[in-house]
Write a structure and sequence with these properties.
With 268 residues, the chain is an alpha/beta fold. The protein has ten helices and ten strands. 40% of the residues are buried. The structure holds adenosine-5'-diphosphate and magnesium ion. It comes from Rhizobium loti (Mesorhizobium loti).
Length: 268
């Protein structure tokens, strides 16, 4: 396995510490080109925050990283393994179906809408995929789930159903559930956008703790304060391309592109 990774690194010039490596990623839906050549480097243990107006392709890009969408063109590797690529003479690479589930589990994804299994308790939500996909025994799955629930401050809710929890608590369970798959990278798609304002802080705190523990994260968010404090890089997307990227503090204080400046003035 590491031979394949070494080969890929050498072939595409992937840095040794790369978790996400994107070059010229394109995605079209019929005639509509949504991603028009996206480049991104997310080193292991770092946090990349992506901002940009609605419809700029942020969710589509995360879905590509998570194997939920097939690329139209470009090179995309997670942990130096292909998600997809297209080079002049090569065919578009696709991960074989039998590997897809496992590879998708390596990239945990969190959505605005939490997406917990509503008919399962918190504990059942956390142990389902580890037992089915990682094939670990129930006792071990439960023990691991308890550690994660303690970490997100919800150990007392193990036997509750999602509907009995607040939105903030549900999102914290969703984060714990994603972590239960031991992902290499966590992808967040506007994780706090559906929450009442007073519940945003508790979710951002869990994300801050994860970042500080060394978790690699790609976070699409409108929370500029979070991006400034926690982000190692800030990326501004508009119209399917990255307009500007940089250190969050500098970029927020001194955006170079007028489009970045205009966007920031609306969300700050
Ligand atoms: P963002 O997350 O930045 O708001 P999206 O990635 O959701 O942007 O969408 C970018 C564009 O792609 C939008 O114009 C959207 O309508 C279009 N789009 C997204 N998903 C699909 C799809 N499955 N089929 C067709 N068009 C889509
Ligand atoms: Mg979106």
């Amino acid at each position: 396995m590491s031979d394949v990774k070494d080969e890929n690194r050498a072939r595409f010039g992937v840095p040794a510490d790369s978790m996400v490596f994107a070059r010229g990623v394109r995605k079209s839906y019929g005639p509509l080109e949504v991603l028009k050549g996206v480049d991104l480097d997310v080193p292991v243990g770092s946090v990349a925050c992506i901002i940009g107006p609605s419809g700029s392709g942020k969710s589509t890009f995360l879905r590509c990283i998570n194997h939920l969408e097939k690329l139209s063109a470009g090179i995309l590797l997670v942990d130096s393994q292909f998600v997809g690529y297209d080079l002049r003479d090569d065919k578009l690479y696709e991960v074989k179906d039998d590997l897809l589930c496992q590879r998708r589990a390596e990239t945990g994804m969190l959505f605005q809408s939490f997406n917990l299994f509503s008919h399962m308790t918190v504990m059942e939500n956390l142990i389902e995929a580890p037992m089915q996909v990682r094939r670990i025994p129930p006792d071990q799955a439960k023990a691991e789930a308890e550690i994660l629930l303690r970490r997100v401050g919800l150990l007392d809710k193990v036997d509750r159903y999602p509907r009995e929890l607040s939105g903030g608590q549900q999102q914290r369970v969703a984060i714990a559930r994603a972590m239960a798959m031991k992902p290499k990278v966590l992808l967040f798609d506007e994780p706090t956008s559906a929450l009442d304002p007073e519940l945003v802080g508790e979710v951002l705190q869990v994300m801050r703790d994860l970042a500080e523990s060394g978790m690699t994260m790609v976070v699409v968010t409108h929370e500029i304060g979070f991006a400034r404090e926690i982000g190692d890089q800030l990326v501004f997307m508009d119209g399917g391309v990255i307009i500007e990227r940089g250190a969050p503090r500098e970029m927020i204080a001194n955006p170079v592109s007028p489009r970045t400046r205009e966007f920031l003035s609306r969300v700050l």
